[in-house]
Amino acid sequence: MTRNGGDAASARGAGPPGLRLAAGEAEPPAPHGARPKGQHPPPDQGQAILAAAKQVGALLKRKGHPFALAGSVAAYAHGGSANLRHDADFCVRREDAEAVADTLREGGLPVYTPPEDWLIKSKCFEQDIDIIFELAHEPVSLEMLARAEELPVDSVRMPVLAADDLLCGLIAAFSEHHCDFGAVLPIARALREKVDWDHVRRVCGDEPMPAAFFFLLERLNVIAPQQDTRPNQRQDARRERNEPREEQP
Q1: Which of 2, 105, 111, 202 is the most buried (most CB within 10 A)?
Q2: Are 163 and 187 in contact (CB under 8 A)?
Q3: Strand locations in the chain, DSSP E?
Q4: pLDDT computed for residue 30 by the predictor
């Protein structure tokens, strides 16, 4: 999951660059600490990300934490492409983060605190796991988690962000510094029948990058053009330019 962040802090212990061990991690994790005991990661990265998402989702579900799967794995659960990349993302409330971190540690997974204050990180099957407290620059709320759908992620059923919330989070993250339309376009195309696009437009507002993405979706016939409910000023202006004015007596 991508969002603008600050400068990376120096690492402590054996954690990845820019991360420090979260409270409760007295020792650097063992080399196998990012892998459930007795299991080996699948050879394909996409399958490894999927296996990691299932493992973490099962841990959180077993402990009864309110959460929802997000990112590309959530899109896959909604019927999108199995071409997974980067990481597996989960949304939790900020006030539940420490309890979630304890659950991950109990499951044998390391937990790291990055410089950004809107997530914590872990690893499973050598894949990055992001535990996110904010989505589309808004705190994860119980209402958002309540809208999540119970969907199968391969063999594990878990809460998955509603399609509207998933697309809002992806599109609202676009900025001049992060504008990867190519990563989100296949997700929008795959989920277009499940998304209330009028709602997504309202949430994302009229910022330049989201507006450009909506224009691209319209031109590719992924979504219908937005209906302009304002008076048709352009046609009126064109008519005024083309029609001669009546001379005043």
Answers
A1: 111
A2: no
A3: 20-21, 68-70, 87-91, 111-113, 119-124, 127-132, 134-135, 138-139, 149-153, 156-160
A4: 39
Distance CA 79, CA 224 (A): 21
Strands 127-132 and 119-124: antiparallel
pTM for the model: 0.76
- The span from the CA of 207 to the CA of 173, in Å, is 11
pLDDT in tens, 148-158: 999 999 889 99
Lowest mean pLDDT across 27-31, 71-75, 138-142, 212-216: 27-31
Length of the chain, in residues: 249
**CB-based burial, 6-24: b 16+ in 10 Å, e otherwise:** eeeeeeeeebeebbbbbee
- Phi-psi bin for 221: left (phi > 0), alpha (psi -120 to 50), beta? left
Burial class, 202, CB count within 10 angstroms (exposed 0-12 / middle 13-18 / buried 19+): exposed
242 pLDDT exceeds 70?
A: no
Closest CA to 132 of 70, 177, 86, 183: 70
Percent of the chain with pLDDT over 90: 59
Cβ atoms of 60 and 100 within 8 Å: the answer is yes
